[in-house]
């Protein structure tokens, strides 16, 4: 199955180019670290390591080593970093400057940056190139559970209706709506009917879809491919969009052919999909911050409500760990708690014992 590899290959090459450029801002040994973890990490993970380590070494340069240029920091310097230094770094992330920008990290961003720093220290400690790994002594910031934001059934219906008819759109957006409504309806229906990730949706090609079995091939996180199935509602929305594409002479004849196209007839970008979801969701549910990932949560919650099987939900959503899926389960559990709240009567009930 190689239905949408070219998109992911292209994305990986862009990530590698970006890593190569950013390595100029890091100490020489960071290239050894990235090479050492290459076989067990994705290009995106390594790019995120680079982003996080840039901030860490900027901190060491200005705070720990008092103006020593980042590219002059050595492995011997790394061995001098104490657990207290790392704790000060986490505090620094609450309000720091990077380049011309003033930035602030929440608990999750701090936890990710600590994880990146730990990976670096662990690698060189295991290689025997530093004597002690003091990052292991620093606890991960406590992460508070985020509220699960999802659309209710009537909001799902309203969202799809809005994409189809365009009611509520501002005047400047209404002009484009006739050109994009079939595509936008197909995108929203696919999100809400299958729960796929935004990267999976953007990476789809025309030949990823098989209407004979109502199935399609997606490339999951980590590069593995999976076959997913969709309903007749999703099939109808996809068929309508593919028919429109087939009748549009401007659609380029390329192979593989991207499924969802931008107004410029190129593969639609992640940012464009995020913007179109936000555009319609603001009309339907202005108080909820709805993103493509929230549409995924909406599907996960609905699927659990219908099946009652957390393992089915985990499999369909592509979660490697079922505990990730329990967030959807927790939302349903809360509904069940509410439904039984009035069952136990404190006054006026008969004692049958």
Helix-strand layout with pairing:
Blueprint: H1 5-22, H2 29-36, H3 43-64, H4 75-79, H5 83-92, E1 96-98, E2 101-103, H6 107-126, H7 153-165, H8 171-194, H9 198-202, E3 209-210, E4 215-219, E5 225-229, H10 232-246, H11 270-284, H12 292-307, H13 310-317, H14 322-339
Antiparallel strand pairs: 1-2, 3-4, 4-5
In short:
The protein has 353 residues and is mainly α. The protein has helices at 5-22, 29-36, 43-64, 75-79, 83-92, 107-126, 153-165, 171-194, 198-202, 232-246, 270-284, 292-307, 310-317, 322-339, and strands at residues 96-98, 101-103, 209-210, 215-219, 225-229.
Provide tags for this entry.
353 residues, mainly alpha, DNA polymerase, domain 1, hpI Integrase, Chain A, three-stranded antiparallel beta sheet, two-stranded antiparallel sheet, 14 helices, 5 strands, 56% helix, 5% strand
Question: In words, what does this structure look like?
Answer:
With 353 residues, the protein is mainly alpha-helical. The protein has helices at 5-22, 29-36, 43-64, 75-79, 83-92, 107-126, 153-165, 171-194, 198-202, 232-246, 270-284, 292-307, 310-317, 322-339; strands spanning 96-98, 101-103, 209-210, 215-219, 225-229. It folds into two domains: 5-137, Tyrosine recombinase, N-terminal domain (DNA polymerase, domain 1, Orthogonal Bundle), CATH 1.10.150; 153-339, Intergrase catalytic core (hpI Integrase, Chain A, Orthogonal Bundle), CATH 1.10.443. The longest helix has 24 residues, at 171-194. The N and C termini lie far apart (65 Å).
């Amino acid at each position: 199955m190689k239905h949408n590899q070219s998109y992911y290959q292209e994305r990986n090459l862009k990530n590698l180019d970006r890593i190569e450029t950013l390595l100029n801002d890091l100490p020489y040994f960071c290239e050894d670290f990235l090479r050492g973890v290459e076989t067990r990490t994705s290009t995106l993970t390594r790019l995120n390591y680079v982003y996080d380590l840039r901030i860490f070494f900027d901190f060491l340069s200005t705070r720990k080593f008092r103006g020593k240029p980042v590219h002059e920091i050595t492995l011997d310097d790394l061995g001098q970093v104490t657990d207290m230094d790392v704790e000060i770094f986490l505090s620094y992330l609450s309000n720091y400057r990077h380049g011309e920008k003033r930035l602030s990290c929440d608990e999750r961003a701090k936890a990710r940056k600590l994880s990146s720093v730990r990976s670096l220290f662990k690698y060189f400690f295991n290689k025997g190139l530093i004597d002690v790994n003091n990052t292991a002594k620093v606890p991960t910031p406590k992460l508070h559970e985020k509220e699960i934001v999802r659309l209710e059934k009537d909001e799902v219906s309203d969202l799809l209706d809005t994409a189809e008819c365009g009611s509520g759109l501002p005047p400047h957006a209404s002009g484009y709506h006739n050109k994009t409504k079939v595509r936008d309806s197909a995108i929203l229906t696919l999100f809400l009917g299958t729960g796929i990730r935004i990267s999976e949706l953007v990476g789809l090609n025309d030949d990823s879809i098989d209407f004979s079995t109502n199935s399609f091939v997606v490339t999951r996180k980590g590069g593995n491919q999976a076959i997913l199935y969709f309903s007749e509602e999703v099939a109808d929305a996809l068929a309508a969009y593919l028919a429109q594409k087939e009748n549009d002479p401007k659609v380029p004849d390329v192979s593989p052919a991207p499924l969802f196209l931008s107004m410029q007839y190129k593969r639609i970008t992640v940012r464009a999909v995020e913007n179109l979801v936000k555009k319609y969701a603001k009309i339907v549910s202005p108080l909820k911050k709805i993103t493509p990932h929230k549409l995924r949560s909406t599907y996960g919650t609905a699927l659990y409500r219908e099946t009652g099987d957390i393992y089915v939900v985990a499999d369909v959503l592509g979660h490697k760990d079922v505990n990730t899926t329990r967030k959807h389960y927790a939302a349903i559990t809360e509904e069940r708690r509410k439904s039984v709240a009035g069952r136990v009567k404190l006054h006026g009930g008969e004692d049958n014992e």
